[in-house]
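thread: overnight batch results

M.L. [08:02]
morning all. the overnight job finished for the chain we discussed friday. pasting input first so we're all looking at the same thing
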Amino acid sequence: MPPVSVVHACTHLRSLGGVQTLIRRHLKRDGDREVSSSATVWFERGPFGPEASGRPVFGLGLRWFHSGRTLRRRLRTLPPGFTDDGRIWTYHDLWGLPTAADLDGAGRRVGVIHSQWEGTEPVLQTIRGAVDGMLCISASSAELTASRLPPLAGERIALLPVPVDPPPETPGSWDRPPGELVVGYCGRIRNQQKRVDRIPGIAEALRAAGVPHRWEFLGDGPERGSLEKTLAARGIRTLFHGALSGDAYWKVLADWDAILFTSDYEGLPIAMLEAMSRGVVPVFPDVPCGGRDYTGRIAPELVYPAADLDAAARTLGWIQSLGMPARVQLRSRARDGMLAHTGDAYGKTFASFLQHLAALPRISASGTAARRTHPGERIPYALIARLAPGHALRRGYL
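M.L. [08:03]
and the structure it wrote out:
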Protein backbone atom coordinates (compact mmCIF):
# COMPACT_ATOMS: atom_id res chain seq x y z
CA MET A 1 0.00 0.00 0.00
CA PRO A 2 1.26 3.54 -0.72
CA PRO A 3 2.57 5.62 2.22
CA VAL A 4 0.31 8.27 3.74
CA SER A 5 1.01 11.42 5.75
CA VAL A 6 -1.06 12.04 8.87
CA VAL A 7 -1.57 14.88 11.33
CA HIS A 8 -2.88 13.71 14.70
CA ALA A 9 -5.00 16.49 16.24
CA CYS A 10 -5.34 16.08 20.01
CA THR A 11 -5.88 18.11 23.17
CA HIS A 12 -2.72 16.98 25.03
CA LEU A 13 0.38 14.87 24.42
CA ARG A 14 2.42 14.93 27.63
CA SER A 15 -0.23 14.13 30.23
CA LEU A 16 -1.40 10.80 31.62
CA GLY A 17 -4.32 9.22 29.82
CA GLY A 18 -5.15 6.53 27.32
CA VAL A 19 -5.51 8.87 24.35
CA GLN A 20 -2.15 10.50 25.06
CA THR A 21 -0.54 7.05 25.31
CA LEU A 22 -1.92 6.18 21.88
CA ILE A 23 -0.77 9.44 20.27
CA ARG A 24 2.75 8.90 21.59
CA ARG A 25 2.61 5.35 20.22
CA HIS A 26 1.62 6.70 16.80
CA LEU A 27 4.51 9.13 16.71
CA LYS A 28 6.94 6.36 17.67
CA ARG A 29 5.64 3.50 15.52
CA ASP A 30 3.58 4.76 12.57
CA GLY A 31 6.67 4.80 10.38
CA ASP A 32 6.82 1.00 10.61
CA ARG A 33 3.54 0.90 8.67
CA GLU A 34 4.35 3.40 5.91
CA VAL A 35 2.56 6.17 7.79
CA SER A 36 4.39 9.47 8.27
CA SER A 37 2.93 11.06 11.39
CA SER A 38 3.00 14.51 12.94
CA ALA A 39 0.76 16.09 15.56
CA THR A 40 -1.08 19.30 16.38
CA VAL A 41 -1.65 19.64 20.12
CA TRP A 42 -4.34 22.12 21.10
CA PHE A 43 -3.59 22.74 24.81
CA GLU A 44 0.20 22.42 25.13
CA ARG A 45 3.22 24.31 23.86
CA GLY A 46 6.46 22.92 22.50
CA PRO A 47 9.19 22.13 22.25
CA PHE A 48 8.24 18.49 22.68
CA GLY A 49 10.96 16.08 23.73
CA PRO A 50 10.91 12.28 23.99
CA GLU A 51 7.12 12.16 23.73
CA ALA A 52 7.39 13.34 20.11
CA SER A 53 9.89 10.60 19.15
CA GLY A 54 11.57 12.98 16.74
CA ARG A 55 8.41 13.62 14.75
CA PRO A 56 7.08 17.13 13.93
CA VAL A 57 4.75 18.24 16.72
CA PHE A 58 3.30 21.74 17.02
CA GLY A 59 1.48 22.97 20.12
CA LEU A 60 -1.04 25.79 19.94
CA GLY A 61 -0.75 26.41 23.70
CA LEU A 62 -4.43 27.08 24.28
CA ARG A 63 -5.64 27.69 27.82
CA TRP A 64 -9.10 27.26 29.23
CA PHE A 65 -9.71 31.04 29.16
CA HIS A 66 -9.23 30.97 25.37
CA SER A 67 -12.01 30.26 22.90
CA GLY A 68 -12.58 28.73 19.49
CA ARG A 69 -11.66 32.04 17.90
CA THR A 70 -8.23 31.78 19.53
CA LEU A 71 -7.85 28.27 18.14
CA ARG A 72 -8.62 29.53 14.63
CA ARG A 73 -6.11 32.37 14.88
CA ARG A 74 -3.35 30.08 16.12
CA LEU A 75 -4.14 27.37 13.61
CA ARG A 76 -3.17 29.82 10.90
CA THR A 77 0.36 29.93 12.40
CA LEU A 78 1.09 26.23 11.89
CA PRO A 79 4.44 25.62 10.16
CA PRO A 80 4.55 24.58 6.49
CA GLY A 81 3.66 20.94 5.99
CA PHE A 82 0.80 20.77 8.49
CA THR A 83 -1.94 22.44 6.47
CA ASP A 84 -0.65 22.83 2.93
CA ASP A 85 0.11 19.39 1.53
CA GLY A 86 -3.20 17.53 1.67
CA ARG A 87 -2.34 15.29 4.63
CA ILE A 88 -4.93 13.15 6.38
CA TRP A 89 -6.00 14.86 9.58
CA THR A 90 -7.18 12.52 12.35
CA TYR A 91 -9.17 14.31 15.05
CA HIS A 92 -8.94 12.31 18.27
CA ASP A 93 -12.26 12.30 20.13
CA LEU A 94 -13.37 14.78 17.42
CA TRP A 95 -11.91 17.62 19.49
CA GLY A 96 -11.45 20.81 17.48
CA LEU A 97 -12.96 19.41 14.30
CA PRO A 98 -16.05 21.67 14.17
CA THR A 99 -13.80 24.72 14.59
CA ALA A 100 -10.79 23.82 12.45
CA ALA A 101 -12.14 21.86 9.47
CA ASP A 102 -12.01 24.73 6.98
CA LEU A 103 -8.43 25.65 7.97
CA ASP A 104 -6.67 22.26 8.24
CA GLY A 105 -5.93 21.87 4.51
CA ALA A 106 -6.64 18.15 4.87
CA GLY A 107 -6.73 15.86 1.87
CA ARG A 108 -8.93 13.54 3.92
CA ARG A 109 -10.43 14.06 7.36
CA VAL A 110 -10.96 11.24 9.89
CA GLY A 111 -12.53 11.23 13.34
CA VAL A 112 -11.36 8.87 16.08
CA ILE A 113 -13.85 8.19 18.88
CA HIS A 114 -12.06 7.00 22.00
CA SER A 115 -14.79 7.82 24.56
CA GLN A 116 -18.51 7.92 23.91
CA TRP A 117 -19.99 10.61 26.14
CA GLU A 118 -23.34 12.36 26.11
CA GLY A 119 -22.02 15.06 23.77
CA THR A 120 -20.78 12.63 21.09
CA GLU A 121 -24.09 12.41 19.22
CA PRO A 122 -24.62 16.17 18.73
CA VAL A 123 -20.99 16.58 17.63
CA LEU A 124 -21.47 13.84 15.03
CA GLN A 125 -24.48 15.70 13.68
CA THR A 126 -22.51 18.94 13.56
CA ILE A 127 -19.63 17.47 11.53
CA ARG A 128 -21.89 15.86 8.91
CA GLY A 129 -20.25 16.29 5.53
CA ALA A 130 -16.88 17.24 7.07
CA VAL A 131 -15.32 13.76 7.48
CA ASP A 132 -14.30 10.95 5.14
CA GLY A 133 -14.15 8.18 7.70
CA MET A 134 -14.35 7.24 11.36
CA LEU A 135 -12.27 4.99 13.58
CA CYS A 136 -14.07 3.76 16.71
CA ILE A 137 -12.76 2.04 19.81
CA SER A 138 -16.10 0.35 20.58
CA ALA A 139 -18.91 -1.25 18.60
CA SER A 140 -21.47 1.09 20.19
CA SER A 141 -19.56 4.13 18.86
CA ALA A 142 -19.40 2.56 15.40
CA GLU A 143 -23.15 1.93 15.44
CA LEU A 144 -23.86 5.49 16.60
CA THR A 145 -21.64 6.90 13.84
CA ALA A 146 -23.32 4.83 11.15
CA SER A 147 -26.77 5.95 12.30
CA ARG A 148 -25.87 9.66 12.45
CA LEU A 149 -23.53 9.79 9.44
CA PRO A 150 -25.08 7.38 6.88
CA PRO A 151 -22.57 8.22 4.09
CA LEU A 152 -19.85 6.62 6.24
CA ALA A 153 -21.73 3.36 6.91
CA GLY A 154 -19.79 0.35 5.68
CA GLU A 155 -16.19 0.64 4.54
CA ARG A 156 -15.65 4.16 5.89
CA ILE A 157 -16.08 3.09 9.55
CA ALA A 158 -13.65 0.70 11.26
CA LEU A 159 -13.18 -0.72 14.74
CA LEU A 160 -9.76 0.07 16.16
CA PRO A 161 -8.41 -2.54 18.63
CA VAL A 162 -6.76 -0.68 21.53
CA PRO A 163 -3.16 -1.95 21.80
CA VAL A 164 -1.70 -3.60 24.88
CA ASP A 165 1.96 -4.62 25.19
CA PRO A 166 2.26 -6.69 28.37
CA PRO A 167 5.65 -8.10 29.30
CA PRO A 168 6.02 -11.81 30.05
CA GLU A 169 3.79 -12.56 32.99
CA THR A 170 5.37 -12.64 36.42
CA PRO A 171 3.64 -14.42 39.30
CA GLY A 172 1.63 -12.30 41.68
CA SER A 173 -0.05 -13.27 44.94
CA TRP A 174 -3.53 -13.47 43.44
CA ASP A 175 -3.82 -17.20 44.22
CA ARG A 176 -3.68 -16.57 47.98
CA PRO A 177 -6.54 -18.12 49.98
CA PRO A 178 -9.79 -16.14 49.89
CA GLY A 179 -9.58 -13.37 52.43
CA GLU A 180 -8.81 -9.75 51.85
CA LEU A 181 -10.03 -8.38 48.53
CA VAL A 182 -7.55 -6.09 46.77
CA VAL A 183 -9.40 -3.47 44.73
CA GLY A 184 -7.39 -1.36 42.31
CA TYR A 185 -7.94 1.93 40.53
CA CYS A 186 -5.65 2.88 37.65
CA GLY A 187 -5.60 6.15 35.74
CA ARG A 188 -6.10 9.84 36.26
CA ILE A 189 -7.27 10.60 39.79
CA ARG A 190 -9.87 13.21 38.97
CA ASN A 191 -13.56 13.81 39.46
CA GLN A 192 -14.29 15.04 35.95
CA GLN A 193 -15.30 11.97 33.90
CA LYS A 194 -13.48 9.50 36.22
CA ARG A 195 -15.61 10.36 39.30
CA VAL A 196 -13.13 9.17 41.91
CA ASP A 197 -15.31 11.04 44.43
CA ARG A 198 -17.56 7.95 44.35
CA ILE A 199 -14.86 5.64 45.69
CA PRO A 200 -15.17 6.55 49.41
CA GLY A 201 -18.88 5.72 49.31
CA ILE A 202 -18.17 2.34 47.71
CA ALA A 203 -15.48 1.64 50.31
CA GLU A 204 -17.91 2.48 53.13
CA ALA A 205 -20.55 0.16 51.63
CA LEU A 206 -18.00 -2.66 51.39
CA ARG A 207 -17.02 -2.18 55.01
CA ALA A 208 -20.66 -2.09 56.11
CA ALA A 209 -21.20 -5.39 54.29
CA GLY A 210 -18.32 -6.94 56.23
CA VAL A 211 -16.10 -7.50 53.18
CA PRO A 212 -12.41 -7.41 54.19
CA HIS A 213 -10.59 -5.38 51.57
CA ARG A 214 -7.98 -2.77 50.80
CA TRP A 215 -7.54 -0.25 47.97
CA GLU A 216 -4.54 0.43 45.77
CA PHE A 217 -4.20 3.37 43.36
CA LEU A 218 -1.96 3.65 40.32
CA GLY A 219 -1.76 7.11 38.77
CA ASP A 220 -2.01 10.72 39.74
CA GLY A 221 -4.28 13.69 39.28
CA PRO A 222 -5.80 16.83 40.81
CA GLU A 223 -7.99 14.96 43.29
CA ARG A 224 -5.33 12.62 44.64
CA GLY A 225 -4.67 14.65 47.79
CA SER A 226 -8.31 15.08 48.74
CA LEU A 227 -9.10 11.42 48.02
CA GLU A 228 -6.21 10.27 50.21
CA LYS A 229 -7.40 12.49 53.07
CA THR A 230 -11.03 11.37 52.75
CA LEU A 231 -10.19 7.67 52.75
CA ALA A 232 -7.72 8.06 55.61
CA ALA A 233 -10.25 10.00 57.69
CA ARG A 234 -12.74 7.16 57.26
CA GLY A 235 -10.18 4.53 58.24
CA ILE A 236 -10.15 2.85 54.82
CA ARG A 237 -6.97 0.88 54.13
CA THR A 238 -5.29 2.33 51.04
CA LEU A 239 -1.99 2.45 49.22
CA PHE A 240 -1.28 5.19 46.67
CA HIS A 241 1.56 4.15 44.36
CA GLY A 242 1.59 7.28 42.20
CA ALA A 243 2.40 7.09 38.50
CA LEU A 244 4.58 4.04 37.82
CA SER A 245 5.96 2.54 34.63
CA GLY A 246 7.83 -0.54 33.50
CA ASP A 247 8.24 -3.52 35.79
CA ALA A 248 7.06 -1.57 38.84
CA TYR A 249 3.72 -0.85 37.15
CA TRP A 250 3.10 -4.44 36.09
CA LYS A 251 4.12 -5.81 39.48
CA VAL A 252 1.44 -3.73 41.21
CA LEU A 253 -1.25 -4.81 38.73
CA ALA A 254 -0.41 -8.48 39.21
CA ASP A 255 -1.47 -8.38 42.87
CA TRP A 256 -4.98 -6.98 42.34
CA ASP A 257 -8.16 -9.02 42.47
CA ALA A 258 -10.33 -6.42 40.75
CA ILE A 259 -9.97 -3.12 38.92
CA LEU A 260 -12.87 -0.71 39.50
CA PHE A 261 -14.20 2.00 37.18
CA THR A 262 -16.59 4.68 38.44
CA SER A 263 -16.65 6.90 35.33
CA ASP A 264 -19.53 8.84 33.83
CA TYR A 265 -18.31 7.80 30.37
CA GLU A 266 -15.42 5.83 28.91
CA GLY A 267 -14.11 4.19 25.77
CA LEU A 268 -12.12 0.98 26.08
CA PRO A 269 -9.61 1.84 28.81
CA ILE A 270 -6.05 0.70 28.16
CA ALA A 271 -5.57 0.30 31.91
CA MET A 272 -8.45 -2.17 31.98
CA LEU A 273 -6.97 -4.28 29.19
CA GLU A 274 -3.54 -4.20 30.82
CA ALA A 275 -5.04 -5.35 34.11
CA MET A 276 -7.00 -8.10 32.33
CA SER A 277 -3.74 -9.37 30.83
CA ARG A 278 -2.71 -10.12 34.42
CA GLY A 279 -6.00 -11.81 35.25
CA VAL A 280 -7.43 -8.84 37.14
CA VAL A 281 -11.24 -8.83 37.00
CA PRO A 282 -12.85 -5.55 35.84
CA VAL A 283 -15.90 -4.06 37.56
CA PHE A 284 -17.53 -1.53 35.27
CA PRO A 285 -20.54 0.84 35.24
CA ASP A 286 -23.36 0.31 32.75
CA VAL A 287 -22.41 3.12 30.37
CA PRO A 288 -22.31 2.48 26.59
CA CYS A 289 -18.70 1.76 25.67
CA GLY A 290 -16.23 -0.99 24.96
CA GLY A 291 -15.25 -1.24 28.62
CA ARG A 292 -18.77 -2.25 29.60
CA ASP A 293 -19.08 -4.70 26.70
CA TYR A 294 -15.79 -6.46 27.43
CA THR A 295 -16.59 -6.67 31.14
CA GLY A 296 -20.02 -8.16 30.45
CA ARG A 297 -18.48 -10.90 28.32
CA ILE A 298 -16.36 -12.02 31.27
CA ALA A 299 -19.46 -12.17 33.48
CA PRO A 300 -22.64 -10.05 33.32
CA GLU A 301 -22.57 -9.75 37.13
CA LEU A 302 -19.48 -7.53 36.82
CA VAL A 303 -21.44 -4.67 35.20
CA TYR A 304 -23.25 -2.54 37.79
CA PRO A 305 -25.85 0.26 37.31
CA ALA A 306 -24.00 3.50 36.60
CA ALA A 307 -23.46 5.79 39.61
CA ASP A 308 -24.98 3.20 42.00
CA LEU A 309 -22.37 2.99 44.76
CA ASP A 310 -24.13 0.23 46.71
CA ALA A 311 -24.41 -1.87 43.53
CA ALA A 312 -20.69 -1.41 42.83
CA ALA A 313 -19.92 -2.57 46.38
CA ARG A 314 -22.22 -5.59 45.97
CA THR A 315 -20.39 -6.53 42.77
CA LEU A 316 -17.03 -6.41 44.53
CA GLY A 317 -18.52 -8.40 47.40
CA TRP A 318 -19.76 -10.99 44.91
CA ILE A 319 -16.21 -11.50 43.64
CA GLN A 320 -15.01 -11.91 47.21
CA SER A 321 -17.72 -14.47 47.93
CA LEU A 322 -16.70 -16.80 45.11
CA GLY A 323 -14.74 -19.93 45.82
CA MET A 324 -11.22 -20.21 44.47
CA PRO A 325 -12.15 -22.33 41.39
CA ALA A 326 -14.71 -19.73 40.29
CA ARG A 327 -12.29 -16.85 40.85
CA VAL A 328 -9.59 -18.64 38.87
CA GLN A 329 -12.08 -19.09 36.03
CA LEU A 330 -12.97 -15.39 36.10
CA ARG A 331 -9.31 -14.44 35.93
CA SER A 332 -8.76 -16.82 33.03
CA ARG A 333 -11.68 -15.29 31.13
CA ALA A 334 -10.27 -11.83 31.77
CA ARG A 335 -6.94 -12.85 30.24
CA ASP A 336 -8.63 -14.45 27.24
CA GLY A 337 -10.81 -11.39 26.73
CA MET A 338 -7.92 -9.10 25.84
CA LEU A 339 -5.83 -11.38 23.61
CA ALA A 340 -7.09 -9.70 20.42
CA HIS A 341 -5.34 -6.50 21.58
CA THR A 342 -1.84 -7.94 21.74
CA GLY A 343 0.65 -7.76 18.89
CA ASP A 344 0.30 -5.01 16.30
CA ALA A 345 -3.37 -5.34 15.38
CA TYR A 346 -3.87 -1.66 16.27
CA GLY A 347 -1.07 -0.39 14.02
CA LYS A 348 -2.11 -2.61 11.12
CA THR A 349 -5.76 -1.58 11.36
CA PHE A 350 -4.94 2.12 11.59
CA ALA A 351 -2.53 2.11 8.65
CA SER A 352 -4.63 -0.07 6.36
CA PHE A 353 -7.77 1.97 7.05
CA LEU A 354 -6.09 5.28 6.19
CA GLN A 355 -4.46 3.82 3.09
CA HIS A 356 -7.81 2.41 2.00
CA LEU A 357 -9.53 5.72 2.69
CA ALA A 358 -6.92 7.62 0.67
CA ALA A 359 -7.81 5.43 -2.33
CA LEU A 360 -11.55 6.18 -2.02
CA PRO A 361 -13.15 9.35 -3.41
CA ARG A 362 -13.11 12.27 -1.04
CA ILE A 363 -16.56 13.01 0.43
CA SER A 364 -15.61 15.65 3.03
CA ALA A 365 -16.04 19.33 2.35
CA SER A 366 -12.94 21.50 2.11
CA GLY A 367 -12.19 25.20 2.41
CA THR A 368 -15.08 27.50 3.24
CA ALA A 369 -17.58 24.68 2.55
CA ALA A 370 -16.22 22.88 5.63
CA ARG A 371 -16.80 25.86 7.92
CA ARG A 372 -19.02 25.02 10.90
CA THR A 373 -19.84 28.31 12.65
CA HIS A 374 -21.13 28.14 16.19
CA PRO A 375 -21.95 30.80 18.81
CA GLY A 376 -19.91 28.84 21.35
CA GLU A 377 -16.71 29.80 19.52
CA ARG A 378 -16.80 33.17 21.27
CA ILE A 379 -17.05 31.71 24.77
CA PRO A 380 -14.01 30.60 26.83
CA TYR A 381 -13.56 26.84 26.97
CA ALA A 382 -13.77 26.88 30.78
CA LEU A 383 -17.33 28.21 30.57
CA ILE A 384 -18.33 25.99 27.64
CA ALA A 385 -17.28 22.93 29.63
CA ARG A 386 -19.71 23.89 32.40
CA LEU A 387 -22.69 23.87 30.05
CA ALA A 388 -24.77 20.76 29.47
CA PRO A 389 -24.06 19.11 26.09
CA GLY A 390 -27.61 19.97 24.98
CA HIS A 391 -27.29 23.66 25.84
CA ALA A 392 -27.84 25.95 22.84
CA LEU A 393 -24.37 27.48 23.23
CA ARG A 394 -22.72 24.07 23.29
CA ARG A 395 -24.84 21.66 21.28
CA GLY A 396 -22.54 20.03 18.76
CA TYR A 397 -19.56 22.02 19.96
CA LEU A 398 -16.71 20.61 22.06
